[in-house]
Give the backbone structure.
Amino acid sequence: MKKQLLVTGFVCCLLTVAATGIGYAQISESIEISTDTGRLVTAHLATPESDAPTVGVIVIHENRGLTDWVKSVADRLADNGFVAIAPDLLSGEAPDGGGTESFASSGNATRAIGNLDPDQVTDDLRAVTRYLQKQPSVGQISVSGFCWGGSQSFRFATNEESLNAAYVFYGSGPPAEDVARIMVPIYGFYAENDNRINSTIPATEEATKAAGVTYEFEIYPGVGHAFLRSVAESANPTEVQKTSLDAAWERFLNRLNAQKTVTSVSPQGKHPTTLGETKDN
């Protein structure tokens, strides 16, 4: 181990914006997805202007909610040829019935995140998964998340068998008794200066090993918690920080590209194996 909706209800398009990205022209739009309970979840959908088979990626936001930075992550994934969707898990939770953008401050949004019903989060993410499954170009589906969303991506892997991989950016793992339900490989992205999260890694390693779950992670030097956002938004990042940011993105994109062609089922008999899975980047 290396260290270092079928959608129920309806989908409503609210806004469409054309954009040009790194390799693909892409369309970004705000949609609403109805869950099995009839709850409406607003999401940022970014789609490459290509009908080539690709991977669908769920992007789970930090504890600040669906911010512009999270939307930019989905846009960058679409720029690289993936269908990406970032749900606002605070949909309907603001005092006026709105989502993230309706909260008076990021602190208020963070407090609301802490009060979310875990089962509601799972239902929301399942509805988003079913939406991706209906997209004609989407084959495999992965979940990714950052900070609070990193922990939620790990947790969702314990609750959704149709996933093909989970990407955990500086998030803690689920309780050991839940790990055995995970059916996909887990790829972790951690920061050197993040002891609160890094102190949980040994227990996660032990639990995943006992359950036969693939768990591969990297610890990136010179950066702290939430480094994908903080370094990207920094006016004067160090060379080490920029290198870590670029390395994390490169690994993420390489892994997603490797998912595009499924070749076999892993020896454990439960984790989908893709081209390049045995080689970390």
Q: What stands out?
A: The CA atoms of residues 93 and 112 lie 7 Å apart. Residues 239-258 form the longest helix (20 residues).
